[in-house]
Amino acid sequence: MMRTQLAWAHHGPSPAVPGDGVEIRPARADDEERIRRFLAGLSPRTQTQRFFTRITRPSASLVRALLAVDERRDALLAVRGESVVGHAMSFKGDATDIEIALVVADEWQGRGVGSRLTRRLLRRASVGGARTLGMDVLGDNRKVLSMVRRAWPEATMRASGGAVQVTAAVDL
């Protein structure tokens, strides 16, 4: 399962909230430096909630993996000007149709950016036939687990090794 700090999303390139200047768009190969700066700017807590470890210097392979888009993977960015303020990705899963992962810059958390990223990611995945999703959330990430319960009240949550494995229906 992918590790995540989760929230929710919007369809098509559009402002995250009218007037805040945040656009949700597909990741591109030329986003490497922007995503590297984004990852380096995340607080240690946010890095750990998303990756289950700190990232002192994002590796080239991690950056490429976060931007990869192909028949099995999708990646979206929330950008404001030249800065990435959020990242969401999905990957064809084994036990579920897709696994998802998401992270939002500390200063943008709680402002709806994650919600729009997630909705957009799930809409794109459902067009491709995805009906179930999975994600791993750190057990102490109460904010995200609470959001999962609200968004997917029928989700299955199973604790394992300090993480909670979530399985839910893609319900749009």
UniProtKB/TrEMBL annotation:
N-acetyltransferase domain mapped to chain residues: 22-172
InterPro entries in the cross-refs: Acyl_CoA_acyltransferase, GNAT_dom
Coiled coil ranges: none
SUPFAM superfamilies reported for this sequence: Acyl-CoA N-acyltransferases (Nat) (SSF55729)
UniProt protein name: GNAT superfamily N-acetyltransferase
The organism of origin for this protein: Streptosporangium brasiliense
